[in-house]
Automatic annotation (TrEMBL):
Chain residue ranges for the region called Disordered: 129-157
Protein name: Helix-turn-helix domain-containing protein
Organism whose genome encodes this protein: Streptomyces orinoci
Keyword tags: DNA-binding, Transcription, Transcription regulation
Segments forming domain HTH hxlR-type: 18-114
Biased composition (Basic and acidic residues): 144-157
Length: 157
């Protein structure tokens, strides 16, 4: 699958004209998003990712390679100078709202009322508030107030 920045559709894309499908092709599997989550939480080394996720070495190797190849992670020399570490790129950091939305959906729908779970706090220790997308006019938008315009102007859900 070529880099998404080349603009060349690949037969490997699930749906070449859909940004959601292309994104899922790149980072939509279970392990990739957990690797990105842990990179956002400070994981840098292969060992960090493996310890935090419990992922098998061969699967982790594959996901790190894929995320690096698609510009979500990059490798840099660690401060010690002895090894390479994985660091989020700007494209990887741009996944923050995606993970935040998944987290907030999970807090509402994946736990029983009162069941304990981790929370996300800002730099002051305050819980991160719910995010809601808004339109150009500031009004909250959702699936009932938006539509997809396919290539060529066709509408689709």
């Amino acid at each position: 699958m070529p880099s998404p920045t080349t603009g060349t559709p690949s037969p490997a894309w699930t749906d070449p004209d859909c940004p959601v499908a292309r994104t899922l092709d790149l980072v939509g599997d279970w392990w990739s998003l957990l690797v990105v989550r842990d990179a956002m939480d400070g994981a840098r080394s292969f060992t960090d990712f493996q310890r935090r996720t419990g992922i098998a070495r061969n699967i982790l190797t594959d996901r790190l390679r894929k995320l690096t190849a698609h510009g979500v992670l990059t490798q840099q020399t660690a401060p010690s100078g002895r090894r390479l570490q994985y660091v989020l790129t700007s494209a990887g950091r741009d996944l923050f709202p995606v993970l935040l939305t998944l987290r907030q959906w999970g807090e509402r729908h994946a736990f029983e009322p009162g069941e304990p779970h981790s929370t996300l706090a800002d730099q002051h220790g305050a819980r991160v508030p719910e995010i809601q997308p808004t339109g150009a006019d500031g009004a909250v938008i959702d699936a009932d107030t938006t539509h997809v315009q396919k290539v060529g102007g066709e509408r689709r859900r």
